[in-house]
Structure formats: structure tokens, C-alpha cells
């Protein structure tokens, strides 16, 4: 029977190298997306090579640490005995806040207008450099977002999901 990974979920921290981990984890998705025919989701260019991505990531981690900002970045780790934990995934969630790429779309207006008291799961990343340790991290991070919603008395969890590739990414 395969071992099921146990994940520790914690907030991202600006002290240390969580921003660098986030960038590398994003980069690790590009070859995987290409391999399943989903390269159109984020394109072929590594995130670390995109203008402004590093600065945006560092700023996002700082925002995530603030109590008054709706953005929260969660880091998933796997314990491995005496070695330091291995980071295997991340989630970016927002509390009662939707990003502009949703609020600016006219066809989304009815849903946006109804959205109250919610958690929005904007990004969910498995670090493909950590195979097989990342197996199950998506489910663990979704559960962490749901738990956050329950703790904050939210009514709904909304999830951003790419609709391309005939749904293969979402299975």
C-alpha cells in the first residue's frame, strides 16, 4: 500500500526563502503543464524569467503576513525525519476579495455581486521538483482553505480553475 504523505500547512514568511520557493514551484509547473497538453494555461516561459514576477512574489509574501490584507499564502511541507521539512506546494487564498481578472469580466458580474463572506482559492501549486512527496498536496491545501473558511465563519469557498485542456488539469 502506498504511503500517504502527511502535510504541515503554514503561512508564507518573508523571513527566509519562501518567495524563492514560490517562484521555483511556479516554474516547476511549466514542464508538467506542457506534458498534459495544458501549456496554454500559463505559457511556455518560466515564471522566474517574466518581468516583475520576482518583485510581485516578494510583495505578495509581505502582504500575506499583514492582518489587514485579504491575501494569504499557505505553504505545505512534508516532514522527513531528522531533515528539515520539504516544501511541496502552496496556495494563494483571499478573504472576501476577488482579483481584478474576475471582477472586471462582465459575464462574472452576477456571481461577483452575490459573493459575500467567502474564501477565494486563487492559486494552487504542486512543486513538481518534489515528486512523489507532493502527492496529495492539492487536497491538503484545499482542506486548509476550507478550514480557514470555517474558522472565519465564511459561507463559501470559491475556486479559480483553468477551463482549457478539456478539464484534464482538474482531474
Q: How would you sum up this structure in a few lines?
A:
By secondary structure, the protein is of the alpha+beta class.
Give an account of the 3D structure:
With 171 residues, the protein is an alpha+beta fold. It has one domain: 3-Layer(aba) Sandwich (Aminopeptidase), CATH 3.40.630.30. The chain has 5 helices and 5 strands. β4, α5 (137-151) and β5 form a beta-alpha-beta unit. α1 (18-35) crosses α2 (53-65). The mean pLDDT is 93.
Distinct helical segment count: 5
Strand arrangement within the widest β-sheet reads 1-2-3-4-5
- Fraction of residues in helices? 25-40%
Q: Shape, please?
A: globular
Poorly predicted regions: none
Tell me the total number of β-strands.
5
Quaternary structure? single chain
Distance between the termini: 22 Å
* CATH architecture group name: 3-Layer(aba) Sandwich
What is the C-alpha radius of gyration, as a whole number of Å? Answer: 16 Å
What does the largest sheet look like? 5 strands, mixed
Number of domains: 1
Strand-pairing-aware structural class: alpha+beta
Please trace the helix and strand order, writing H or E for each element.
EHHEEHHEHE
CATH superfamily: Gcn5-related N-acetyltransferase (GNAT)
Mean pLDDT: 93
